[in-house]
Amino acid sequence: MRNKYSVFSLIKNALSYHENWQRAWKDPAPKKEYDAVIVGGGGHGLATAYYLAKKHNMNNIAVVEKGWIGGGNTGRNTTIIRSNYLWDASAGLYDHALKIWEGLSQELNYNVMFSQRGVMNLAHNLQDVRDLKRRTHANRLNGIDAVYLSTEEVKKFCPIINTSPDIRYPVLGGTLQRRAGTARHDAVAWGYARGADAMGVDIIQNCEVKGIKRNGDSVEGIETTKGFIKTKKVGVVAAGHSSVIANMAGLRLPLESKPLQALVSEPVKPIIDTVVMSNAVHAYVSQSDKGELVIGAGTDDYVSYTQKGSHHIVEGTLNAILELYPIFSRMRMLRQWGGIVDICPDASPILSKTSIKGLYFNCGWGTGGFKATPGSGDLFAHTIANDEPHKLNAAFNLNRFVSGDLVDEHGAAAVAH
Amino acid sequence: MFLINCPYCGERDQQEFKAGGEAHIERPKQPTELSDDEWAEYLFMRKNIKGVQFERWNHTHGCRKWFNMVRDTSNDEIKAIYKMGEKPPSQ
User: Which residue ranges of chain A lie beneath pLDDT 50?
Assistant: First the structure.
């Protein structure tokens, strides 16, 4: 029986010096067979397992993770959540996720620290202004809250931005989505893991997939470092390593895996109470609850699985940050890291069946998958359980690269691909 | 970030170069005869290998010439560099 987190459980555990908290999830050995196996124990994979159990009554399932829960891109992103994408298909997908975020802490009985502090996207040239205005109109037609801000309004909303007209890339305006914001990324993985585990999902860590066994055009199971697991349905949610798993099954995906970097500063008192993103100068910044500035940089342009990026990418981002926020000039950076992101040619994800029966892929989220975690899990669970996509992820099928019906979101993806 | 030994200019900082993606993807000889599946394969599908990969690079801030590289994408170690039109070294 799973204990509920509440103020009473907090008091009770305080009395025993917090030494007797129940484990948030078990550490089972893999069974011989499952109804479905999710490959990848990040936020998206755990959310998929959670919704498979909760909404589709598939409780005899497992999540296999080669490292530890949330140790990949879930713990490496800059935690930004927004849904201000251009095309109808993306608006539907990302706003579905945003709506789930709004009630997620209550649903999971786990505080994911979702904070709707707003996300502002800046325009630095006339084309940016036109694109952002167009995107604002498109958002509003899709029922997504978005407003266009003048330079003065940008300054009012975030006073530390340098809006002087004589900087290299002056701020000519921006957009604001007030429902957007941030959440604590680790808590999202842990909350979903705890929720899935409570419904009987086996979460198997340190279990790397080594092969996918096929019988003709159907999946029969997976070879792992903890032995063979028989299953008819495999949902791969492996982010930067999606192509590695696809190659095991003899599939090719339209992905390239590249390092994306982020960094945090030393903690300081509250100075920026929103998220500011700038595509043109490639800089985005917010402040964590601990007080660190959380800064996102760009991707390297070559394929690499090294989870580290080039120094000049970080340097370019910090140049831009310093021009936009001169107040940060003496901040010291504490940590820098990279994550491997799987980038699609159209900067949109793939949530799809494949040519192999029982093999599903949820990948291609590129530089911005965290925001979609709950929606992605929900829709991917639907796709796996019914062997058919939900109408909200139907456009994000693999076949779009054959039909040409791409969902080009390079403009809204924030990090230029 | 690493050093690249451009076959025309010698060893330079990677920042001077632009990665051009997977190498040896042959342009279709009869484009009009290609099916949609074959076009998708040519245009979009990539091996995206974790390990030794053959790729194209351009020395954009140098001689601006294209060349091929064999690189281990799991540790960014460059195994070989050879000019366009040359046969890839056998592994």
Answer: 417
The pLDDT tens digits for B59-88 are 999 999 999 999 999 999 999 999 999 999
- Does residue A253 belong to the interface with chain B, where contact is any CB pair within 8 Å? yes
Question: Cβ separation of B48 and A243 shorter than 8 Å?
Answer: yes
- Residue B8 confidence (pLDDT): 97
Q: Is any Cβ of chain A less than 8 angstroms from the Cβ of B24?
A: no
**pLDDT computed for residue B1 by the predictor:** 78
Q: Kindly state whether A243 is in contact with chain B, defined as any CB-CB distance less than 8 angstroms.
A: yes
Average pLDDT over residues B29-33: 93
Interface test with B, best of A302, A315, A350 (most B CBs within 10 A): A302
Give how far B21 is from chain A: nearest CA, Å: 7
The ipTM (two decimal places) reads: 0.95
Give the pLDDT score at A283.
86
Q: Mean pLDDT, chain A, as a whole number? A: 95
pLDDT exceeds cutoff 90 at B12:
yes
pLDDT tens profile A201-226: 999 999 999 999 999 999 999 999 99
Distances (CA, A) of A372 to A95, A276, A330, A347, A408: 8, 19, 34, 14, 17
Which residues from A are below 8 Å from B43, CB to CB? 345, 401
Encoding tokens for residue A28?
């089972």
Shortest CA gap B76–chain A (Å): 7
State residue A240's pLDDT score. Answer: 96
Contact A305 B53 (CB under 8 A): no
Q: CA A411 to CA B27: how far, in whole Å?
A: 29
Confirm if A286 and A298 have CB atoms less than 8 A apart. Answer: no
What are the structural domains, with CATH classification, of chain B? 37-91 (3.30.2270.10)
Tell me the three state secondary structure of residue B42.
helix
| Residues 6 or more apart whose Cβ sits within 8 Å of residue A200 | A53, A59, A60
Q: Could you tell me how far CA A197 lies from the centroid of its own chain?
A: 21
Residue of A373, A304, A372 whose CA lies nearest to A339:
A304
